[in-house]
């Protein structure tokens, strides 16, 4: 019995993998920067009180 996954051919490797990694790295960096900004604004508000 064969299972069909819906894909006719395996996805291309190489450039698509690098594109995926590049996008994931960019998203991760954006999240880390947003977290750092949130931490900075949180500490500033506490020190002003």
Write a concise keyword list for the protein shown above.
mainly alpha; 69% helix; 1 helix; 49 residues; 0% strand
The number of helices is: 1
For the largest beta-sheet, the strand count, sense and barrel status come to:
none
Assign the structural class, choosing from mainly alpha, mainly beta, alpha/beta, alpha+beta, or little secondary structure.
mainly alpha
Secondary-structure element series: H
Low-confidence runs of at least 5 consecutive residues: none
The dominant shape is elongated
- Give the percentage of residues in beta strands: under 5%
Whole-number mean pLDDT: 81
How much helix, percentage-wise, in residues? 55-70%
**Computed CA radius of gyration, to the nearest angstrom:** 21 Å
Query: How would you classify the quaternary structure?
Result: single chain
Q: Ends: how far apart?
A: 68 Å
Topology, number of strands: 0
Structural write-up:
Helices cover 69% and strands 0% of the residues. It is an all-alpha fold and 49 residues long. It has a domain of 27 residues. The mean pLDDT is 81.
Reconstruct the topology from this structure:
Elements: H1 15-48
């Amino acid at each position: 019995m064969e299972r069909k996954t819906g894909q006719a051919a395996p996805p291309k490797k190489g450039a698509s993998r690098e594109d995926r990694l590049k996008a994931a790295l960019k998203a991760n960096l954006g999240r880390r920067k947003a977290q750092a900004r949130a931490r900075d604004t949180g500490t500033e508000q506490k020190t002003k009180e």
